[in-house]
Amino acid sequence: METSDRDSDVQKWLKVALAQENLDNFSVTITGSSEKGDGYIGDVIFVTVTGTDKQGKNKEYDLVLKCSKPSTALMENVPAFSTAFVREIYMYQHVFPLFKQLQITKGIEQPFDSVPKCYGVYSDESRRVLVLENLKKLGYDLWPKAVPLTRQVVDLVIRQYAKYHATSVAFENQYPEKFQKLLSDSTEDMLKQLIESDDFVKLFKTTVDEVYDVVKDDVKSDTSEQWLKLKDQVTFICGEMTPDIDDLKVINHGDSWVNNFLYKFENEDKTKISKVAILDWQLSKYTSPVTDLSYFLFASLSEEDIADIDTILRDYHKQLCEYLRKLDSNFAGTYTLEKLFEDWRKYGIYGLLICIYPIKSLYSGKEDLPDIAEVADKGAAFTESFKFEAKDKSGFKNRMRPIVEYAVKNNLI
């Protein structure tokens, strides 16, 4: 997109999205944009908006614009990506406000608020834009991508997931009709749409083979052979698993890899973290909370902490039940720790499969990650944009080996 066209589009989008801010006039300065490999499904533009409201008061906003790709070929050939943007907008416009109101009603002093403020949206036939506060201006930043999270950070995220999942459970218990409307009005699951493509199924199976190739010489042969059986579960994990779940279900996050969390660092050397913000809700759906837990833990943990997953799950269960009680949900006494471990054994396989591609991308250079819209515009299948090798095979192996060993030892496959 030419710079002049982009500037014009951004002005147009913000005029609609910031309507509730009642600005008489405003100017926009574009301060940056996502790099290759960052905004994979969409693009990100960073802007500063200055203006005056109708009372003449000066206003300034540091904003993030999440934009769908301006590729007609991509949207026509892969409608699931359009679905993903609609889904995230729905979460900000409908789900989060209702969940927030429930927590306010219950007088929660420290509610789940680990998402950026949404100022508004813009949508037309060709583009969808979500306008959010720029948390980096408030001291938030990414964790170093190829570095496993410390236990302190893991515990921080687990607490927020417990609060969010508990709020979903409590809202469903106490407002069943409103909750069903949330489900019926939302869009179809993106992964379920994608899995209808044979190419996408083959892509996932190929990633399982890639892990086998890098770890086979470092694990027992029966372990590596058992890992390969994960390929038989691809269609189930991405398509059939969610509708078949009769156990605890929540409206989940869905995309729990390291790039989708921002942390508020309280000191310059970034050793003290006070808050986390959870980003990118495009893959959210009504499913087991274990999908979030397994994806997050397998994508983020050190080898030492993978060996201690049971303790992390116990902490999650304690936090979940405590928050359910604060929300006056009678479900707190019925979802036992034993049931959580049972659900982990059933649905933890989700995180095993979904974490492979993001982990592999951590050990590849950004120049090796094709732009999905560029691939589509050239007439190639969109799955071609996911076909790349890990440059640092040793790093990739060292992250995946303990995951493979844990999965086989604990009968997740």
From TrEMBL:
Signal sequence region: none
Gene3D superfamilies documented for this protein: 3.90.1200.10
Annotated CHK kinase-like domain residues: 130-326
Superkingdom classification of source: Eukaryota
Coiled coil ranges: none
PANTHER family reported for this sequence: PROTEIN KINASE-LIKE DOMAIN-CONTAINING
Listed name of the protein: CHK kinase-like domain-containing protein
Lineage: Eukaryota, Metazoa, Ecdysozoa, Arthropoda, Hexapoda
